[in-house]
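Q: Given only this backbone (176 positions), what sequence would you predict?
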């Protein structure tokens, strides 16, 4: 099994096993699973809810249909429309970069799983921007009178992927 060692931008070693039993296609399949789940739930919500409609599920969680024209937490949502294409382009660029990273670091399972979650989430939200002109959000958690900004499956995948990237880096630093 041939392995190559490279240094990342931060100087940490990254080893890519050429003979590993994982391929970039496996990681892209994880991303595709995220995209399919995200789009499935968005379609169900869009077809069964009116805009702004909220249905309680538990004492701390509602399903709701809201639109986000901006980025996370509606950042730049009222910017006049240019943000749709900016965030679409940014999502595509990030997606291409992640695919390149998947090919470079195929043997690093946690790292690749993390960025494949981010890839699936990014593409899920890009599809919304292209098709609807906004991102469909529907998960609404709340406590007392505070509602966390609504989000979706793609946002969950991006968040979990980011946390896993931090865990991966902490594990890598600990080894050295």
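A: Predicted residues:
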């Amino acid at each position: 099994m041939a392995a190559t060692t490279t240094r990342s931008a931060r100087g940490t070693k990254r080893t890519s096993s050429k003979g590993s039993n994982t391929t970039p296609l496996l990681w892209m399949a994880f991303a595709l699973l995220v995209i399919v789940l995200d789009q499935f739930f968005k379609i169900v919500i869009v077809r069964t809810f009116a805009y702004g409609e909220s249905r309680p599920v538990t004492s701390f969680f509602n399903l709701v249909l809201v639109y986000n024209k901006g980025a996370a937490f509606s950042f730049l949502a009222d910017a006049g429309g240019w943000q749709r294409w900016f965030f679409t382009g940014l999502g595509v660029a990030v997606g291409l970069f992640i695919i390149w990273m998947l090919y470079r670091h195929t043997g690093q399972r946690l790292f690749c799983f993390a960025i494949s979650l981010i890839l699936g989430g990014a593409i899920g939200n890009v599809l919304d921007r292209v098709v609807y002109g906004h991102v469909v959000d529907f998960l609404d958690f709340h406590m007392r009178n505070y509602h966390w900004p609504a989000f979706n499956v793609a946002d969950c995948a991006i968040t979990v992927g980011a946390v896993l990237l931090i865990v991966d880096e902490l594990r890598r630093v600990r080894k050295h």
